[in-house]
Structures are given as C-alpha cells and as structure tokens.
Design goal:
- This protein has two domains: 115 residues, 3-Layer(aba) Sandwich (Rossmann fold); 129 residues, Arc Repressor Mutant, subunit A.
- It contains 14 helices and five strands.
- It has 275 residues and is of the alpha/beta class.
- It is elongated.
- It is 48% helix and 9% strand.
C-alpha cells in the first residue's frame, strides 16, 4: 500500500461504509458485549462460532478487523488465531479478562502475531478505537487520501471525488452516488472530472478497486476468485478483465505488484474509457 500522506481538507462529507468486524466467539455473551461496545452505525458485526465459520466469512465478505475471544481458549480458538497469518490485511485483536491464569493465552496470542491483546472491561474504549484505527478500509483510505501526483488529479472536484472512492475500501460505488455527494448530476460530474483531457472518472473508479484487489491478493489465504467475491466483482473473469483493461497486467500478478506499479501502468495510456 502507498505510504500514509497528509490528508487534504474535505470539501464535502464522504459517506464511507462502516468497517466489517468479524467476531470469533463461541459464547453468546461475548458476541452481545461486542455489539454493545461497537454500535451498528460505527461498524457491521458478523459473528463466527468456529474457526471454520471465520474462514468462510473471509471468503464471503471484505473483513476489516477480527476480534477473538481468547478468555476460554480451545484448540479451535487457536485455529481461528492461525487465520491471522492467512489474512494479514485484517488485524486480529484478542480480548481476555487478564486474569492470572490468562498468561499462557496472552503469550500464545502474541506468538500467532495478533495485533493486540486487550483487557475485557478495562480496554472497552480502546477496542472501539482500535477497530477504527486498524480497519482495512480505513487504512486503505488514509494511505490514498491524497491522490498520487502521477494521476494529475489536482482540481478540488477531482480530489473530492477521489476521496469518496478510496473511502469505499475497494467496494463498488455507482457514479450517481458519487455525484449526489458532490452535489452534481452524474453527467456533469463525469464531464467536469475529465475536463482538460484528464483521467476518465470510470477508469479512476476501476483503478481504485484494482488497488484494493491488489492489497487483498497479497493475503496468502486468498486466490483471485476469493478477491473477486469479497469485492463484489460479478465474477473472477470480471476482475481479470478490469485489471487488464486498467493496468495491462494479469489478475494473477496482483499479489506481487505494488500500488506504485499499478498506477504507473494506469498512467501509461489507460486512463480514459469510452463514455
């Protein structure tokens, strides 16, 4: 992912989707507690009662953060924790009461490379902040808040639209939805965005989705079909066609291409489309 850069001042409110938080918790009280701590307007909670369910969630949805209940850890708990190495794009946060007997679980959480181990109750506010700070969608948007200079998106309208696009974290958004947020018709936005032979809005929308796809493709647990599914491409072939049209690369190469590589390929004659 491109380095974090100084954010530009927002020109209009950007309606980004809430992060999707997967909660591994065989016990209902823990799931209920997380839903209470993280209001629905701040996140979308999806629950997994087993490691197998957690794995299925990753292949069905774009998961931003995972919260693990390790207070009564079992072998299945550690199978769930092992997903952290398969899906590093989504930081894993463990929660335990921090009792004297929890030392081995805390140590093992660290061994699995979890992002943090929080104390239940004491760190409740920290948990909410950690979800916001660590969520994949939030980090993706922050890293790309200022459009790369090579794209030539220097106008206020272009930057405003770009901010809306990267705020989706790679999820699809319709042109008319962007237009509503900037207070224009779809046709007016498209014309103004590409004025002066600039980059075509539809191509920029595709580019942002490809950049997100490339980040997700770096997860060892994903193949191209998985990435297409979680980003809601119509099919793996739709993702492949989009990648090739926008960058000239093959979808199978996304895992090894950096954002800068993809942007350079895009700028090299692939920034405009028909319509």
């Amino acid at each position: 992912m491109v380095p974090l850069r100084r954010a530009v001042e927002a020109q209009a409110p950007v309606l980004a989707p809430p992060p999707t938080v997967a909660v591994y918790a065989p016990r209902e009280p823990f799931r209920t507690r997380v839903r209470h701590l993280i209001p629905r307007r701040r996140s979308r909670i999806v629950a997994a009662k087993s490691a197998a369910e957690l794995d299925r969630l990753f292949r069905r949805d774009l998961i931003d953060v995972v919260i693990l209940d390790v207070s009564t850890a079992t072998d299945d708990t550690w199978r769930a924790a092992a997903c952290a190495s398969e899906f590093p794009s989504a930081p894993f946060l463990a929660v335990t009461p921090y009792r004297g007997a929890d030392g081995p679980a805390i140590a093992r959480s660290a061994q699995f490379g979890l992002a943090d181990v929080l104390a239940a109750g004491v760190d409740d506010s920290v948990l909410r902040e950690a979800v916001e700070a660590h969520a994949f969608s939030r980090r993706f948007a922050a890293a790309l808040q200022v459009p790369p200079s090579a794209l030539g998106l220097d106008g206020a309208l272009q930057r405003q639209a770009w901010s809306i696009l990267v705020g989706q974290g790679g999820r699809a958004i319709r042109t008319d939805a962007v237009a509503r947020q900037v207070g224009m018709t779809r046709e007016h936005l498209s014309r103004r965005f590409a004025a002066g032979d600039g980059a075509n809005l539809k191509r920029i929308m595709d580019l942002v989705r490809v950049l997100a796809a490339a980040e997700l493709a770096k997860n060892p647990g994903y193949d191209t079909s998985d990435v297409a599914a979680v980003l809601r491409f119509a099919s793996p072939s739709h993702l492949s066609t989009t990648v090739t049209r926008v960058t000239g690369a093959r979808a199978e190469s996304l895992a090894r291409l950096r954002s800068g590589d993809l942007i350079r390929r895009f700028v090299d004659g692939r920034s405009r489309s028909m319509g």
